[in-house]
Design a protein that fits this description.
This is NAD(P)-dependent oxidoreductase. Belongs to the NAD(P)-dependent epimerase/dehydratase family. This protein is of the alpha/beta class. The chain has 9 helices and 7 strands; from the N terminus they run βαββαβαβαβααβααα. The protein has a 7-stranded parallel sheet with strand order 3-2-1-4-5-6-7, with helices on both faces. Helix 2 packs across helix 3. The structure holds 1,4-dihydronicotinamide adenine dinucleotide and D-galactaro-1,5-lactone.
Length: 273
Amino acid sequence: MPAPRTVLLTGAAGGLGTLMRDLLPGHGPGGGYALRLLDMRPVEGEPESIVADLADRDALREAVRGVDAIIHLAGISLEASFEKILAANIEGTYNLYEAAREEGVGRVVFASSNHAVGYTPRPQGDDPLIPIDTPRRPDTFYGLSKCFGEDLAQLYWERHGIETVSVRIGSCFPEPTSVRMLSVWMSPADGARLFHAALTAENVGHTVVHGSSANTRLWWDLASARALGYEPQDDSEPYAAKLLAEQGELDPANPAHTRLGGPFVTDPPIWPY
Ligand code: NAI
Ligand code: 15L
């Protein structure tokens, strides 16, 4: 596979999309990745971005035409009614893969989530890190939609030869803001490193990876991400003392502290629109 250069970034107006617009291009070949941007909201300062909903199959087909790869971030990123999740995350992701198939795009990087396996107990004491083949335990309709996206990616690999790296992202924000996040945080710079590895690794078929930095308090195994060439450079530990002083240690009697998905297993944040 030739190294991808032109990449469609869906969800470009969102938090992660905004970070990646800034950080990802520099990793690309030659002059860097050429990003084509898509979101249902206009992307600030990017008049050429494509404003389209994932429900619009004609717009998706046009958006993917001629790109070498797709990074699929668009969708509902929190919990919502089943009907909303069905439209944006399930049908929307299907529509995007159909557009990729119709236009011959060979590689997708899919933003999956820790919430596909959110009910998994976090490791305690000498427990091993959570392996990548841990059983699915979605904690919300949102997490369930990420399970669907991963399975859709598997189907489109086996049936249509479209390769995907599904990145089960922990928490990718400029800084960790909770004690739980110390264990699942992926710095934006490491996020760009991981997306670059996922775009360029050879023969990935459908590969599922955990998306985190090299955190001292890591809960899950990064082996399948490292096998793509990902070398995380960051660690949340410099934030630990302040967060522990403010919030205290994780409580072993509180499921929001003992399950990978954190508050999503008890009180999931709701998508506002
Ligand atoms: P976000 O909510 O900030 O951005 C999502 C973007 O998708 C928004 O700009 C929104 O307008 C767009 N969008 C939503 N529905 C759409 C539709 N039907 N058609 C077109 N665009 C639509 O979320 P964030 O944090 O940037 O996350 C990006 C992706 O990464 C999401 O798929 C999320 O589930 C996933 N993820 C993010 C994590 C994180 O820590 N930021 C952790 C795990 C997964
Ligand atoms: C996610 O999947 C969400 O999209 C993001 O907003 C965070 O809540 C993250 O998980 C997390 O678990 O911290």
